[in-house]
Design brief:
This protein is of the alpha+beta class and about 500 residues long. About 70% of the residues lie in helices and about 10% in strands.
Length: about 500
Amino acid sequence: MWTESIFSIQSSANIKVSYKSALLICLPLLLAACGFEQYIAKPIHTEAIAIKIEAKNPESTQFQQFLINNGFSPEHLPVKQWGVDELTYCALFFHPSLEVARAQWRAAETATLTAATKPIPGINSHIAHSNNANQDISPFAFGLSIDVPIESANKRDIRIENAKHLSQIAKLEIAQTAWQLRNLVAQSLYEAQFNQQQINLLTKEQSFRQQVVAIYQKRVNLGAASNVELSTAKLQLQISTAELNAAQQNKLVLLSKLASHLGLPLSKVEAMPLLQDSYNTSIENSLSPIQVKPENLNSTALLNRLDIRIALERYATAEAKLKLAIAKQYPDITISPGYTYEFGNHVWSLGLSGLLTLLNKNKLAIAEATQLREVEAAQFEALQNNVIAEASAANAKLIQAEQALAQQQKLYELQQHNTQRMAQRLAAGEIDRLELTFSKLEDVIAEKNIALAHFQLKTAINQLENTLQQPINTLITKEKLEALSLNQ
């Protein structure tokens, strides 16, 4: 009895020593195999970011190479006149919102890898000590078990499917951001061009009104006109001067707006020679955009709109969530093989565990996921309806703008003929110079109406392009714009 007790104590001591030795040997190996990531701080330096923003330059070597890579000829660089295409490339290269969208896409891509991760096995161990009341067994007990989780009903594949749809949504949102930038850049350019046209025409109008005031002043001095007529002419001159000053002051505001959409400092945009829009006053040379045929209008919008494609991906995501809720009816199983050295006995065990989901079959989660899928379906139908309505309205505005421009061009041509007749009558001595000057003022007013109608037409074209998300009057195709937004 005494020898057996000594043997038991020695055995337990040997097991204890061997157990510790195994831990000492295995623990460094396990830690080395894990390869832990170290936290690296990355603070945000606001001053450095401000310097980076101010350093953006459309004449930089990097941007020039970007233009060359996208088909620009090196001998035509740097850009001499910035039109819609050139400014679009500029926004795609410099604007920070695209980098935000790209970062969100990269995060979604990483989430796809995370979703594909299989459940990690776990390890459990325990040690126990008894009071050794019987004095005939070892007082120590050791246990070790491994938990091996097994997912059922393809839950991992469903998670991967859901993550891929979310990643595709993030990818499409990059292209959506690019389209929004293109629309804003084009509209800002058109506004800046129209503002310059207003300045030119108001300058011309101011010159004619100064001539009118000078003529009336001479007549008042000679007693051939009243002070009321002179005051009226001066008032019209003041109104024209105020409009010119307002247009000149608005130029800086519009350039600031364009700089914001380009992601560039205002000082750089002020130095960029913008393309000046040379509108035509004759009907034969008027802007004639390529219109989408009415029968193809809806199909073009539904096939090209990125928000339609995003909505389809959101519906697919809702489908995946419903699949996962249904799959969770079936419990995951955890197999736990184990070994225990218990008071001198070697005990082998095999455990099996799982949630009792069969009791309620995940009914509430399935019902919630089903309703969320119905919500996505209803939102998609509403979006389709809005897209069709927007496309029809944008096309109608384009047709209306074309008709308005044609009408203003007719009125201008009539006014031009009238001015020519007035000049002939002045040469014949039938009228005085004041009447001809007023006729020239009417020419300027008619030309201002043409400039406004032309601006409204270009705005309508831009709105239709943005509604269809299909370029009409630019060289950048839809596919190239989306590719640039992803790859730059």
